[in-house]
Fold this sequence. Notes:
By secondary structure, the protein is α+β, with helices and mostly antiparallel strands. It has one domain (about 1-95). It is built from two helices and six strands. The protein has helices at about 10-25, 80-95; strands spanning about 1-5, 35-40, 45-50, 55-60, 65-70, 75-80. The relative contact order is 0.16.
Amino acid sequence: MKMYNLNNPAYLEARSLARVWEAYAENCSREDITEIGFNDQTGYVYIALEFGIDILSKFGQDVEYLVTDFETGEEFFEDTYEDAEERLDEINTRNYA
């Protein structure tokens, strides 16, 4: 697991980090984490999961789930983990069928 840019988080980054860890614990704690970090371009704190869903929060706001179609580069932001799983299944079915 890699960790980036979170050695000394500001207040809102710390709030976001707490939110993504809580979402991870509640929804997908059996999934392997590939990376934890902060994107200074977008303001998102994230946990990237090995199978293709990222858990995101910025400025201490509610968590979002990001699914990326690596064939097209299109990104999908979902409100729930279940919606993200469904989107990932759709993408995988389309790209690997």
